[in-house]
Amino acid sequence: MSLFQHSLKLTLATCSAAFLASFLGADYAITAGIIAILSVSDTRRTTLKLAYQRLLSALLALALGSFVFWLFGFHLWSLAPFLLLYTPLAYRFHLEIGITPSTVLVTHLLLEQSIAPALIANELLIFLIGTLNALLVILYMPDRQKELEAYHTQVETLLKEILNRFVFFLRQGDGRNEARTVTLLDQELRQALEVAYLDYSNHLIHKDSYHVDYFEMRKAQNDILKDMAQNINNCQLSLEESQILAELFQHVADQLSQFNPAQAIMAEIQTYLQQFRERPLPQSREEFETRAILLQLLKDLQTFVQLKVDFANHYPESQTIVPPKNK
Question: What GO cellular-component annotations does this UniProt entry give (predicted)?
Answer without folding.
Answer: plasma membrane
